[in-house]
Amino acid sequence: MKKLDKKEYNGYGVLAELTFNINKLFGNLARYFFNLSHKFKFEQYKIIFGERKDDIYISTYPKSGTTLMQMILYHLTSDGKMNFKHIYDVSPWIRNASFIGQKPPDLNSPRIIKTHDSYKEFGKKTKGKFIYVYRNGMDVAISNFYQQKNYNNSDLKLDKYLNSFFKQKKWFKHTREWMINKNKLSILYIKYEDLLNNKTKEIDRIISFLGIPRNKKAINRALKYSSFEFMKKNENLFGEQRKVSEKIFNQFIRKGKSGEGKSLLAKEQKERFMVYYKRMVKNVEEKTFGQKLNI
């Protein structure tokens, strides 16, 4: 084998670096056009779907009680028939629907619309009302970790996931923007923990906020069908299941509890969480819920 001289060696190094940079550039361009295409499809979808003054948006960061709230609102605002194949048939996640090519559903009013979008996606003139469900960020991190592990990467480690969670700061940004409510949208803020501990009281708040009739039968249905026992037993109505045998897809409705983050995060991880929490969320959370918090 011919031995490379220094000049040839350096030349191959430059070529390798150039190739790497070109591949990186094409990768970035591909992601850019993919995201642009997705955005265009979503804008088209929203035009067809339209807006109504009595629309009800459920806004959450993922794994914060979205599906629980969908079930509550569905029963409070409809006849509560349980003949749908999936919760999205009666309470669509319109961004996801546009992405996978579904047609906008023709729903009776009021429509219950799921969103995980950032606050900036909703302008001052957005019609309808919003219910923002807030869950403790440490619990959110743990719940999202298990969903990623069960659905996407069975080898995912908690340390690696949390490093990404803290680095990206998505939960902190999402929570802060929605609680500041710069555009003065009509928003009812509900704590996930309060839904678990005193659901009847929170349902009363929802009824008052939406200005809908206080129907005892509807309330009883909402309590029954939003219970953890029912939702876990009928998980096929809520979860996203893919046909990949080596992955676990029966954990979309996982535990329905609070406080898991504190018990599973290591001391240094909790301290790191608190640094961002105090900097970005604590003040607006206390202002939103009108009380000092002990986290």
Report on this model:
The radius of gyration is 23 Å and the shape is globular. It has helices at residues 6-49, 66-77, 94-99, 137-151, 158-168, 170-180, 192-197, 199-210, 216-225, 228-233, 260-264, 267-280, 282-289, and strands spanning 56-59, 112-115, 129-134, 187-191. It is built from 13 helices and four strands. Mean pLDDT is 85; it is low at 241-254. It has one domain (52-240, 249-289): Rossmann fold (3-Layer(aba) Sandwich). Helix 2 packs antiparallel against helix 9 (216-225). It is an alpha/beta fold.
Main attributes of the structure:
295 residues; alpha/beta; Rossmann fold; 4-stranded parallel sheet; 54% helix; globular
Précis, in short:
By secondary structure, the protein is of the alpha/beta class.
